[in-house]
Amino acid sequence: MQDIANLKYDANGLIPAIIQDAQTNEVLMMAYMNEKSLRATIETGKTHFWSRSRQKYWMKGESSGHTQQVKEIYIDCDKDTLLIKVEQIGGACHEGYRSCFFRKLNSDGQWEIIAEKVFDPEKAYKSK
Length: 128
Fold this sequence. Notes:
By secondary structure, the protein is mostly beta strands. The protein has one domain (2-95): Ubiquitin-like (UB roll) (Roll), CATH 3.10.20. The chain has helices spanning 35-44, 121-124; strands spanning 15-21, 27-33, 48-51, 56-59, 68-75, 82-88, 103-105, 111-113. The strands form three sheets. Strands 2-1-6-5 form a four-stranded mixed β-sheet, covered by helices on one side. A two-stranded antiparallel ribbon has the order 3-4. A two-stranded antiparallel ribbon has the order 7-8. A hairpin with a 5-residue loop joins β1 (15-21) and β2.
């Protein structure tokens, strides 16, 4: 795993990670990883990220139970973006959708919701 230290992280030590369903190739989400979260992802087989807004390390599904089981990890030609193929358990989006990409720009220039919610976020993220 020494090679992950040589990836092209940005000035904040982060690298974008595109998360894709391993079977359907649907793009589920995009988040950022640092070297620590990438190492944890490789070691545990579950995705871990760095939250820029919360300034916090986190595992996908730690509050909701909607985890991602890693199947394959790729790096692009510039070594500055990851593609991680996963088996998604539950929804990937914190708003309750399977994918974070549930809005599409329609011909009227409006963002249209094109998916159904797969879970209730208020129940999934309620305080325990």
